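User: For my dataset I need records formatted as: sequence, then structure tokens, nothing else. Please produce one.
Assistant:
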Amino acid sequence: MIPTGIMVHSTGANNPNLKRYVGPDDGFLGNNPNNNHWNQYKPDGSAKCVHAFIGKLANGEIATYQTLPWYMRGMHAGGTANTNYIGFEICEDGLNDKNYFDKVYKEAVELTVTLCKIYNIKPEKPNIICHSEGKAMGIASAHADVMHWFPKHGKSMDTFRDDVARELNNTVAPNYPVLKKGDKGESVKTLQNKLNTFGYNLVVDGDFGNKTETALKDFQSKNNLTADGICREKTWAILNSPFKTPEEITIENAVKDGVITEIDYWLNALYGKIAVSKENLKLLMDTYHEVCQAAK
């Protein structure tokens, strides 16, 4: 899908732990002995498929845990909003702990800001809505979330959208000036460090030379930006978005361009980042079958 909106959900259960909804345990989530997490196939068609959850890791820290690529159609709205809205769930507690609420609310605002920057979504209704607002608009099923929870702590979707807008305005900061070849200084070091987190091995010397320009052009091309080697607001926004390696960016673009399928994408994600080509898919399938055989 092409995301044009964001729908905020909450889980409707007194359990703030991510392990209740996401599995299997990766060392951060913690173990769910009941194996009733949401991100799994169910033959009866009752499975839910949201893009992310916000809640507690095993160590008690609040985190966002992504469970579906943002640009893939989810099953979260129970209506037509599934076709173009990113949906994420906030794990509910007993609804009375203000400390917990403040933390997950802040995390939800920050996630929404990031998604708004990536997909150029304006922080206003109907672009950012909750499930109950989606119901009123006729694009979602009859759920009350999140308006059964937010008002208990002095918040609403209007205040949520205002907070997202405020954060978006604050992120366009002088710390991220327009940079190009020949520039020098601390801002260039910031750019080089950011590029390195995406897998580029640049010397962080504060000198915008040929290698920095080449890396930046490659990054821009893989993120569907104008590959001119000039770092402007849109490039900074994606550089500040959640971490992706160059291989993952290549795979995602290949899915969008129809070079490989979503199944190929997930095989890559599950069994190793392999350069995208049809020739390599046999290796991926062989690995997949080996894993299935071992599971038996």
